[in-house]
C-alpha cells in the first residue's frame, strides 16, 4: 500500500510565505523556525513556526472506478506562530492581522488544494535580547489557516480469477 497527500505542511508554509512576502517586501527573508539550522539574519525578517494541525471534520471516503484506490477527504486547521523582527516588525504584524480579517484572504498554492485564512490573533510585542544584551524589535502573532486535504491509499485487488481443478487422492486405504 502507498499513501499520498494532496497538500503537505510544506505547501501550507509556502502559501503563508506567498501571502506575507508582498506585505514585508521581497527583500525581507521569511524562514521556518526550529528546523532551519541557520542563524538569525542581521536585518528585518520573519520566522514561521508550525504550532499544530488538527482535523476538524470526519473524513469522507470514496473509491475510484477500479476499486484499487480509496481517497479520504477532510478539513484541517493549521496554527502557525509568526515572529516579525526588525524596525518595521510592528507594522508588518498589524497589517497581517488586518489582512487575515479581510473579505478575500484566499491563497492559491501550486497544488490542487486551496489554503484559506481563518483567524489571526492580535499581535503582541515580545522581548528578545541578543548576545550583546541589546533589545531587538520583535512582534509575535498567531495565524490559523484551513485547507482541504485528501489522502489516497492504493489497495491490492484482483481483476482476473482462475479456477484449478484437482483430483482428490485418498491417502488412507
The number of helical segments is 2
Query: What spatial form do the alpha-carbon principal axes imply?
Result: elongated
Helix content: 10-25%
Number of strands: 9
Largest sheet: 9 strands, mixed
Give the oligomeric state of the chains in this entry, treating copies of one chain as homo and distinct chains as hetero: single chain
Rg to the nearest angstrom? 25 Å
Percent of residues in β-strands: 35-45%
| SSE string, helices as H and strands as E | EHEEEEHEEEE
Low-confidence stretches: 108-112
Name the structural class. alpha+beta
Distance between the termini: 48 Å
Return the average pLDDT rounded to an integer: 82
Structure notes:
The protein is an alpha+beta fold and 173 residues long. The chain has a domain at 3-50 and 81-141. The chain has helices at 9-24, 89-100, and strands at 3-5, 30-32, 45-55, 60-63, 69-85, 106-108, 114-120, 124-125, 138-154. β6 (106-108) and β7 form a beta hairpin. The protein starts with a strand and ends in a 19-residue tail after the last strand. 18% of the residues are buried. Mean pLDDT is 82; it is low at 108-112.
Features of the shown structure:
9-stranded mixed β-sheet; alpha+beta; 173 residues; 16% helix
Gist?
This protein is of the alpha+beta class and about 170 residues long.
Chart the SSEs and their pairings.
Layout: E1 3-5, H1 9-24, E2 30-32, E3 45-55, E4 60-63, E5 69-85, H2 89-100, E6 106-108, E7 114-120, E8 124-125, E9 138-154
Amino acid at each position: 500500500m502507498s499513501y499520498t497527500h494532496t497538500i503537505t505542511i510544506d505547501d501550507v508554509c509556502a502559501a503563508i510565505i506567498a501571502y506575507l512576502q508582498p506585505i514585508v517586501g521581497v527583500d525581507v527573508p521569511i524562514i521556518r523556525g526550529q528546523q532551519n539550522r541557520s542563524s538569525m539574519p542581521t536585518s528585518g525578517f520573519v520566522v514561521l513556526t508550525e504550532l499544530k494541525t488538527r482535523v476538524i471534520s470526519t473524513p469522507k471516503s470514496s473509491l475510484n472506478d477500479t476499486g484499487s484506490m480509496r481517497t479520504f477527504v477532510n478539513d484541517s486547521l493549521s496554527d502557525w506562530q509568526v515572529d516579525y523582527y526588525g524596525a518595521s516588525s510592528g507594522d508588518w504584524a498589524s497589517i497581517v492581522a488586518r489582512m487575515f480579517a479581510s473579505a478575500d484572504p484566499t491563497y492559491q498554492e501550486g497544488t490542487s488544494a486551496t489554503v484559506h485564512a481563518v483567524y489571526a490573533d492580535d499581535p503582541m510585542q515580545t522581548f528578545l535580547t541578543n548576545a550583546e544584551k541589546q533589545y531587538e524589535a520583535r512582534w509575535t502573532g498567531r495565524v490559523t489557516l484551513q485547507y482541504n486535504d485528501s489522502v489516497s491509499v492504493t489497495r491490492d485487488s484482483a481483476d482476473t480469477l482462475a479456477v484449478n481443478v484437482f483430483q482428490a487422492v485418498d491417502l488412507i486405504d
